[in-house]
Amino acid sequence: MTDLETIRDGPRTLAIVVRAGRRPPATEFVTPDTYKQQVGFIVYPKGGSVRPHFHRELARQIEGMSEVLVVRSGRCVATLYREDGATVAERELGPGDLIVLLAGGHGFRMLEDTVLLEIKQGPYAGPAEKVYLDRP
After folding, report:
1. What pLDDT is stored for residue 81 in this prediction?
2. Closest Cα to residue 121, out of 78, 71, 62?
3. Model's pTM, two decimal places?
4. For the chain, domain boundaries
5. Topology of domain 4-43+64-129, per CATH?
6. Which of 29, 77, 97, 133 could be a cystine partner for 93, CB 3.0 to 4.6 Å?
C-alpha cells in the first residue's frame, strides 16, 4: 500500500489519501497551489524556526467545498461517489491517516468507535449546503 494516493474519476481529483506513516525528508505539499485546500508537510531541522508573521486579508473566491479528515482513533471506510451516486472508490482509513476530499460525494462507515478531526472552509451554511445521495 502506498503512503500517498490520489483518487480520480477521469481527469477530476476526488480525494487524496495520506497514510499515517508518510514522513517526507523535505517540505512537500500533497495538493497543487491551484487547489482550494492546501495540505502539505513542512519539514524543519532541530533548532529550525518559522519567522513570525501574519497573513494579509486577501479576498478569495472559492467554488465548492473541500474537507480534510484525520482519523484520530478507530477505523473507518471512506466511500467516494460521483454526483449521480455511483461509487468510484472505497478506502479503509486508520489512526493517523488523512483524506483530503476535493470533489464528488463521500460517506463513511465506521468499523470501530472512531474519532475524526475535520478541517473545512467556513463559514458553515448549515445542513442546507449538503445534497444527500441516499434517503434517511
Report:
1. 96
2. 62
3. 0.91
4. 4-43+64-129
5. Jelly Rolls (2.60.120)
6. 97
